[in-house]
Amino acid sequence: MSAQLPLGDISKLAIPTLPGMQPPKPQPGFWSSNPVFSYLNDVYSSVSEHRRSLGLNNPGTVEDLSREVSRDVLLGQYFFTGLRADLTKNFSTNPYFQITHSLSIGSQMMPPYAFTSLYATDDLVAQGTLDNNFALNGRVHYAWSKNNISKINSHIAKGQPAMVQLEQDYQGHDFSFNIKSLNPSFLDNGEFSGDVYASLLQSISKKLSIGIEAAYSRQAQYPPDAAISYLARYNADKWIASAQIKAQGSVVASFYRKVAENVSAGIETQILASMRPITDPMLGQTIGVEPVMEGVTTIGAKYEFRQSVFRGQIDSDGKVSCCLEKKILPTVSVLFSGELDHLKSTSRLGLGLQFETAGSEEMILRQQGLDANGNPLTLEQAAM
Amino acid sequence: MAYNFSEESKERIIKVLGATRTMVHYTWVPFILYLGWKSTSNKPNLISLFSPLPSA
Amino acid sequence: MNGVYGIPRATKQEPVSRFQKFKESPAYPVVLNVSLFAAGVWFIQSEIMDLMVPQ
Description:
Shape of chain A: globular
Number of domains of chain B: 1
Number of helices of chain B: 2
Strand content of chain A: over 45%
CATH superfamily of chain A: Porin
Structural class of chain A: mainly beta
Structural class of chain B: mainly alpha
CATH architecture of chain A: Beta Barrel
Number of domains of chain A: 1
Oligomer: heterotrimer
Largest sheet of chain A: 19 strands, mixed, barrel
Largest sheet of chain B: none
Order of helices and strands of chain B: HH
Number of strands of chain A: 19
CATH topology of chain A: Porin
Helix content of chain A: 10-25%
């Protein structure tokens, strides 16, 4: 039955918030000619007309509110410890298909061995990772249209409850809406259990966008919990500032600047308020709570060179860390990451190698900078 | 928003979910490999699909 | 901490300086990080950052 659902046609629906879409003229009839509805229709079309005349852009997703700093300039996910090797084999570029064997020693985060397969077309991304304990991390993204993407993330491991996250991402003409749910279930006496997050980010001028995120969480046997977070992002072309006030009592502010073509710098401050129980020094009992504030500020820069990328950062806890990625051959990259904790006098090191091999004739030619017919690749083709 | 399932149907749903989970766990990666294998021009054999060594 | 709970102090408490008091208050990490952020933004926007671009 699902084959008949015209789901792929959502893009053809006239949604006035989609870029380049005109709302259809209301057909004269009872629903549009009676005074109440024609008034509402007029208001609706003049509002959407006005919104378009403001020339606002889509503000990007809530998840990416501070992507320039937290995902690009600062080390974050690039940092690793121990030794690792990634052996990637590319089979084709359109659709994109590759497999990766990852080996790792001495890391708390990465499993000793993992196998990843990735398949991607213009509207579908499917990825699966199995590690040496046979735990699966799976991911599917399906784009119904350029603006409407469904995502499923799942983690399944033996002897553990499965984790499933369903997500719908909608990017309108001047706003982004996202709703996601973690482990939703109605089996607990017919009541909902799980977590739901809904967020809306709206451009209110060409540079400023503000947003709100609501979280609702209910687990069996616990009372439900709801929270609201506020978001703001200011993009002034040369620099970008963002701030989040989270309901759990934390504030995150970030600032980014593209200093030059190949250099960018960023700073991020997190301040977290929490309650700490006070213990009676004599009896060892809890006699009350006191507010505790914790904060950390991290400043960093990213340098891109022809064959390498360098990231360095320093934070207010006295940690200095850097990450270097260098292509030593077209198919081999070396990764280095290091961290020095000056307050605790400890350090962490990571060293890695990335190999890329070809699984087809086409990919071998591509590695030599040629397309399938043996002609040199254009820049756009090479970037693919 | 309360759906009241009977004990029986609840058990059945849990069973179906458990079976789905097991199925996804064991077939997801092979399924992606099949999708990819189908899309490649040279249809690599199993060994070259898994081996990290170049093959063409 | 002090004599509220009737714990006898073995030694006489050292007078706490105002800075020490401020350092222990919850406002300290807030003020510190806000000023670090402001200083960092100023640094990134300043010409020193432009000088750090490799030629």
